[in-house]
Amino acid sequence: MTSTLINIINFILSEQTDRSGISISKLTKIIYLIDWRSSITIGRQITDLQWHSNIHGPYTKTILDESKKEKNIIITTTTNELGNKKTFLTLEYPRKLELNRDIIDTINFVLDATKNKINRDLKKLVDSTYPIVSSEKYSELDLAQKAMEYKNYLVSTQKYRSNLNKPEDK
Asked: Which segments constitute the Antitoxin SocA-like Panacea domain (predicted)?
């Protein structure tokens, strides 16, 4: 499944219009949302990433580690005025992608939903997802399990609401 992850990273990078690339933080959030969307719609993640909840949201170092192995991905680290480091990824050259239509549709769904979001708003979106709000910080996130819980919660909420709207028996 690592090849799927690399193909997803390459696809996302090929869609970027910013010449400076995409930060690893933003890329991680987008891939998390892709896995979350997939978990909701088909009951499993697209990638085999082990997601963890930390103070900055979902995290896995595998995305950066696997990107470092790719010859066509350029990784640049900069330091801002406050001394904070930020890592960006860009494509040196595109590569042939091996993704099926369903995966591409899921990626495009997430890219469309996040394309106009600044970092703060993207973080708010990610932090509002069920796996994040329902998990302890620094815990492992089982997105497929969380998707089942979320669906069950929605069903029970719908049943409760429909019972509220029923006329009382007299």
From this structure: 27-127
| No. of helices (H) and no. of strands (E), the chain | 7, 6
Q: pLDDT per residue over 18-44, tens digit each?
A: 888 999 999 999 999 999 999 999 999
* Residue 164 tokens, joined: 């509220």
SS (H, E, C) 4-42: HHHHHHHHHHHCCCCCCCEEHHHHHHHHHHHHHHHHHHH
Domain boundaries, the chain: 2-164
Amino acid code (one letter) for 43: G
Model pTM? 0.90
3-state secondary structure of 95: coil
